Amino acid sequence: MNLRSTIKSALYPLYERRILTHLDLTKTPHHIGLILDGNRRWAKENPSATGDTSSAHGHRAGASKIIELLEWCEETDVNLVTIWLLSSDNLKRPSNELKSLFTIIGQTVEQLSATGRWKIRPVGSFELLPQSLRDTLKVAEQKTAKVRGITVNVAIGYGGRLEIVDAVKRYISDSASIGKAPNQIAEELTVDTIDQFLYTAGQPDPELVIRTSGEQRLGG
Questions:
Q1: What are the catalytic residues?
Q2: Given Cys at both, which of 2, 106, 153, 214 links 136, Cβ 3.0 to 4.6 Å?
Q3: What is the pTM assigned to this prediction?
Q4: Sheet containing 151-158: order of strands
């Protein structure tokens, strides 16, 4: 164990106890949103033992903390966690970076489902993703469908604006399929009618959103 790990293992319990003394455990959130951000910057500041500062190194490090986060959530009243792994805007990155990122995401989803502890629910515009990753997401969802643990929304190819567009498209398609006229479809278009076509239909909004880079902004 190196010096950094030794110091961390000694100080972490103290840090945890200090945080707990400032928390009102009667008001813990039930739905937490996690935006994985800052991985590339972290990698440059924290090279691996072999000197790797690539974005893939940062993405792997970020993904490795997800299981630990979910284990923390199991100790509280949190029953729903949304993890934004890849936004639709991220799909504009260079192809070589996306290739490694898709691989890391696929491995992460497989690891989460392999525990058998959490119900995996992929959300996003999957048509934007490679077929191999779509297959991995489908298998993970099916494998954990009957799990009673925390529901984990895995947001991949997700964008807030894109979700609204997709929801409107689904609403129009569904209404047209049962013979509704265009004017009736328009008249019945409300927040409530669209809500049931969102990726996370039937779920409450997050009560706490954490952006791991420390920046205080939403994406997408």
A1: 37, 90
A2: 106
A3: 0.79
A4: 119-123, 151-158, 80-87, 31-35, 208-211
